[in-house]
Write a structure and sequence with these properties.
The structure is a homodimer. By secondary structure, chain A is α/β, with parallel strands linked by helices. In chain A, 31% of the residues lie in helices and 16% in strands.
């Protein structure tokens, strides 16, 4: 395995791509390239959660895919003094506001393409997998990857940005749902801070909300998408997922959805490998990663020989 | 993750312990130690197969356990000229003959104990997991770990060698079964070479075969053991597994056995992540790793808080 952390911009130590590159072997793919999954943790555009980072990458690596964790631009990288208690003092952070975080995914794609021969990555088969705000970031990338907001910004060919699939866990699909008041003060504080971190305003226009709502931007160029969520999520309402699914259906994009009735926001893999407490363990929701594996396998076949090498003609 | 390869003896570059140490985080176990699984690949004491190494370690890492791959002493490390064609020219290799390979597991245990505080390994919960010859090596260690052949050799306290569990995949349990003639010339060639590499003689005594047969050496000090195999295995007859299970039952050692009707020898995880060809994929047998996970979870609970840290009293 090559496990290293690459800083994506010389002047910004917190924005990194960590590799989990599987060792090749004559006994395995013998020099042939593998698909890869790029994991974007959640954390309300305020943090990147460790619970949705390395353990998830290892699960995809266990499937035989190269994996990456992208720690994209978030508010606290530039404002480490941030705390929910002083959240009313937030200032606009051009790194955490739209479209910066989704451009970080573009930068990660360019980096992976650049190293593809060395790392043995099949660049036609790179999936993005995000959680919560990370799922929003991935969904934004999935709808904007071919748009000048990304391609012109980097001045690179559109082919270098193309994601093959998106896997979205309890993500924000429609930002109009996120600016409604919460009855719970803690949830309100988190949502308000997250919204300011990403939108850069306390009073977003309907146009801005449309722009940052993947469910309102899906086209036929959006890659096949796997979505899961819990109906009981009180932080990111499950309609974020159903609305995005509706948009994918309308656009004719292949997709799969699994909504579990119970379970809080932020379960990650919902098993002991990602649990900060027993409340993060939910055997029903934990089925999602196997469902995602089966779904991904349909389009991310490994280039495995039909017969052993010594039996070939 | 800390992924590094440690040479176990200064003068022997091929005998190595590779770490797959999970990153700790305040969001995860927050400084508490984790169980670990030490993986021993198979390869007839002639090689260590990559198909039974890193991909398996990653699967255990995905469960939330630290993982290690041990490349123990095998014949070809000292005799790289070996080929099945010239197998009749083999000479005795004191590194690959009993008891050297099982002592390498002891050396790995000492190394893990030495770094346990730095690596956050719970040394009361280290399992060994082996495949084929690697399963034999693990089974030998499981029956001899407290014996002077290991403890006196290293002059270290017996507590530093104690394995908490053994997971054995299509392993050799009774060497008397391995010296019988095969009807297939290729299998005979592999078995003869493997036997010479490990026994150091073409004519082993019944006493030597008894000594190297875990099924004949099980005691109440043997750790809980999970065994799996395929009934159709033509290289290592499945009676190796049933005889070892019988011995564990007789000694009152907790154990679990899964024997799948079909499937060749050497399936590893039996899924695309470890397949050298499509013949290495077997959905029935592939269930073993989840059965092993459930079995291991009963004794390798992660120290996860009941409630989130911020909700503690």
């Amino acid at each position: 395995m090559i496990n290293e952390t690459i800083q994506l911009y010389p002047d910004r130590p917190g924005v990194t791509l960590t590799t989990y590159l599987l060792a090749d072997s004559p006994e395995l793919l013998n020099g042939k390239k593998r698909p890869a999954v790029l994991v974007c943790p959640g954390g309300a555009y305020l943090n990147c959660s460790d619970r949705e980072a390395e353990p998830v990458a290892l699960r995809f690596a266990g499937m035989g895919y190269h994996a990456f964790v992208l720690r994209y631009s978030i508010y606290t990288l530039d404002h480490p003094e941030f705390n929910l208690v002083n959240a009313t003092d937030m200032v606009i952070n051009p790194h955490s506001t739209y479209p910066s975080p989704m451009r970080d995914i573009g930068k990660a794609f360019l980096t992976i393409h650049e190293h593809a021969d060395q790392w043995l990555v099949d660049t036609d088969k790179i999936a993005v997998c995000g959680f919560s705000a990370g799922a929003h970031n991935c969904a934004m990338y999935a709808v904007y990857w071919h748009n000048p907001v990304i391609t012109d910004y980097f001045g690179a060919p559109v082919s270098q940005f193309k994601p093959a699939a998106a896997i979205l866990a309890y993500g924000i699909g429609d930002f109009h749902l996120m600016v409604k008041p919460y009855s719970n003060a803690m949830l309100q504080a988190v949502a308000s801070a997250a919204n300011f971190a990403y939108l850069g305003t306390r009073n977003p226009s309907a146009e801005l909300l449309d722009t940052v709502s993947p469910a309102r931007q899906v086209t036929a160029s959006t890659p096949p998408t796997f979505l899961w969520a819990t109906a009981a999520d009180v932080l990111v309402p499950v309609e974020n997922t159903t609305r995005l699914a509706t948009a994918l259906a309308h656009a004719g994009v292949p997709f799969e959805v699994h909504i579990f009735e119970e379970g809080a926001h932020g379960l990650s893999l919902a098993d002991p490998s990602t649990a900060g407490s027993q409340q993060d363990i939910n055997p029903d929701a934990a089925q999602w990663i196997r469902l995602a594996e089966a779904w991904l396998r349909k389009r991310f076949l490994l280039p495995i020989l039909e017969k052993p090498a010594w039996m070939q003609d």
